[in-house]
Amino acid sequence: MDILLRVQGIPQNYLRSPHAAPSRTLIDVFESAVRRFPDAACIDDGERVLTYAEVHAHIAETATWLHGQGVAPGARVGIHMPSGSANLYLAILSTLAAGAAYVPVDVDDPAERAELVFGQAGVAAVFTGDGLRTTSGSHENNPGMTSEAPRPPRPDDDCWIIFTSGTTGVPKGVAVSHRSAAAFVDAEARLFLQEQPLGPGDRVLAGLSVAFDASCEEMWLAWAHGACLVPAPRSIVKSGLDLGPWLLERDISVISTVPTLASMWPDSMLTGVRMVILGGEACPPELAARLVAGGRREVWNTYGPTEATVVACAAQLTGSGEVSIGLPLDGWDLAVVDGAGEPVAIGGTGELVIGGVGLARYLDPEKDAEKYAPMPSLGWERAYRSGDLVRLETDGLYFGGRVDDQVKIGGRRIELGEVDTAVSALPGVHAGAAAVKKTDAGASVLVAYLVAVNPDAFDLPDAAGLLRESLPAGVVPRLALVDELPTRTSGKVDRAALPWPLESTSAPETELEGTQGWVAEMWSSAVGADVSGSGEDFFALGGGSLAAAHVITTVRERYPEVTVGDLYDRPRLADFADFLDGLDPVAEVQKRDVTPVPLGAQLVQLVLLLPLVTLAGARIGTWFALGAWVAGALGADWAPQLPTPALVVLALILLTPVGRIVLAAAVARPLLGGVRPGRYKRGGSVHLRLWFAERWVEACGAAGIGTAGWNLVFASLLGAKIGKGVDLHTLPPVTGMLTLRDHC
C-alpha cells in the first residue's frame, strides 16, 4: 500500500490499496466455507451446536419459505430479535439466502424507534423472537416486493441496511451491497493471522448488537473461514468484568470489540484469545500495549464508518508508540483533504475522504448526493466525506477527532444534533444542548442541559422517561437544568463550557453513613452526579455498564464475590448497601513473622539435590543414547551404543508418560505417607519431605505431560480420590490430598 504523490498528472497525497477482491456475494462466501468445512461447528449458542452443513440446509429451506410469505429477491426484512441465540443469526443468513437485505434494530430500542426504522426501510417482514410477521403496505413501500422468482443474491443487491444517528433527529438508513460486504470480508482475510490462519479450531465472540455494523465483522470473521460463531447474551456482555469467565468457559479465541469494553477486561480473561480487533473508538496506547502482551497476541486497530462498509483501514499494533488507524483495506481508497478539498501534504491534518469498493449509499437520495458527492481534486466520481480529522503520515493515518459534533460512546455513533432536537422538543423546555463529559472513573457520559420555561416545576425524571420512549437505548442522556446555555461568539452553543460535574439534584440532601455512604461515594465518582438519598437508582443517575464495572472493581476489594449482575439486580442504593451488609468482608491481613529455613535444613536440601540432578542427567543421557542408537542403526560406526535391552528399559522408565508418572509417584507417595492436613515447622521433617517430593516430580518430567488423561492417572497413583467422568487439566497436588466428585 503506497502513498501516491501524483496520479493522472494531479499532485495528490492519498492512500490506495493495491487491488480489490473478485466480485461475489456474502452467500458465495458462506457456501465456500460449507464446501470446505461441512462438519465444522458454525454456530454454538450454548444450547445447540450447528454445523455448516446444518446451517446451510436450514437457511435454504427458510429462504424458500420466505419467498412463499411474499419476500422476493431485493426485498427488505427487519431483524428485531433477542441477542445470544442461534436463531438471530439463522434469520440473518436466511434473509440473505432469499436475496433480501436485513434491517436490524436493537431489541432494547423502544418500539417507536423500530417502527420508524422499519417504516423508512419499507420492510416486507420482520423477524422477532416469536417468529416472522409480514408488514402492511410493504408492497407499496418496498422496491423488492415483486413477483420475481426465487434466486440467490447478486453482487449489486443490498445485503444489509443499518440506520445511524442523524443530525436532524431522524436516523439515516445506510445500504451496503453484497459486492462491498464480500470485498470487506475478503480484504480482512488477507490481513489477519497470516501465519496461523483462522479456521475450524477458532471460536469467534458474537457480543455486539446486530444493529451495530461491527457485528458484521464478528459474523464473517467466523463464517468466511469455517470458524464457529459463539453468541453471547446481552446480559453477559454488559456485565464487563463478569464476561471473563464466560470467555474462558466457551474457549473464545477471536474477539472484535470497542476499546471501552476491552479496557475493563483483566489479562486473565484473555488467556485463550489469539486475536483482538478494536474499532469504533480511539484506542489508548496503554490499552494497546496491554492487549498485545509482548507479542503473544495479534491485535489490530481498525477504522471505518457505516457508510464505507464497517472498516476502511487497519493497523496491526505492536504495543509501542502512537496508535495508528493504519492503511486502507484492499479496494478502499483514502485521502486527507483541507477545507478547500485539496489533498494535504505528508504530516498535514485534514478531513478523511473515502472512495473505492466499500462505498455504501444512503436511502435518502438527497443525503446520498450530499455525502457521496464527486471529489474533483482527486478525480473521484463518488467519495464519502467522513467528518473525521486525521493526520497523514508515510506509515498511514492517525485519528485526530471530529470536524462536526458527532461523537462515539461505547462504540455507538451519536449525532449530538439528534439529542439536541429530542431534548429541545420536550414539554416545558425552552432550549437544550447535549455534550459528552468524563467521570472520575473515566467513563464517557452523555449529558443534556435544559433551560426550562418554569425550572421550579420541571420534572427531570418525567422528562427522562419521555426521552426513553423516543431515543435508542444507550443514547438517552442524563438531564441537568441550567439557567442558560453558554455560547461562542458565533452564536453556537459552547459545549465545552457546559458545567461539569453536575450540581446536586433537587432531591433533599440526606446524610448517608456506613455502607450507604461508602456506596454513595463510589456511585458519585462513577456517574458524575451527587447521590443524595438511599432511594437513588444507579441507572437512573446515568450509570451504565462501564460505570458499573468501575464500581464493582472497588467493591470487590472488600467483597470479592460480588458481581456486576448483583448491581443490576439491586440498582437502588439502599438495596445494594443492604446486600453488601449481608456479606462477609474479606478478612484483614494479619502480620506474621516468618523465620527462614534453618541452616541445617538448607544443608539437607543441598545434599538432596544430588539425586535430583542425577535423575535429570539420566533423562538427558537417555535421549543422547537413544539418538546414538538411531545413528548406529543408520550405519554410523562412531556412535557409542548401549545394549538394546538396557536402552529400552531406560526409555520406558525415564521418557514415556507412563514411566515418568509411575517413577514420580513411586517416590512421592511413600515419602509423604502419613502426612495429614495441618501446620508444620519450616525446615522440619514434613517440610523437607514435601520439598523433595515436589522437586522429584519436576525432575521426572511428570509436570510436562499436561493432558487430562495422564493427570487423572497420576492423581490416582498419588492417592487422590477420583469420581466418575472427571476432567482434570492441571497437575494434582503431590500430597494426594485431593477429592474430585463425579463429573467435575
From TrEMBL:
GO cellular component terms listed in the entry, alphabetical order: cytoplasm
Any GO BP: amino acid activation for nonribosomal peptide biosynthetic process
Domain Carrier: 510-584
Alphabetical keyword list: Membrane, Transmembrane, Transmembrane helix
CDD domains named in the record: A_NRPS
Transmembrane regions: 623-640, 646-672
Region annotation Disordered: where it falls in the sequence: 132-155
GO MF annotation list: phosphopantetheine binding
InterPro entries linked: AA_adenyl_dom, ACP-like_sf, AMP-bd_C_sf, AMP-binding_CS, AMP-dep_synth/lig_dom, ANL_N_sf, PP-bd_ACP
Transmembrane helix recorded as keyword: yes
Biased composition (Polar residues): 133-145
Protein name: Amino acid adenylation domain-containing protein
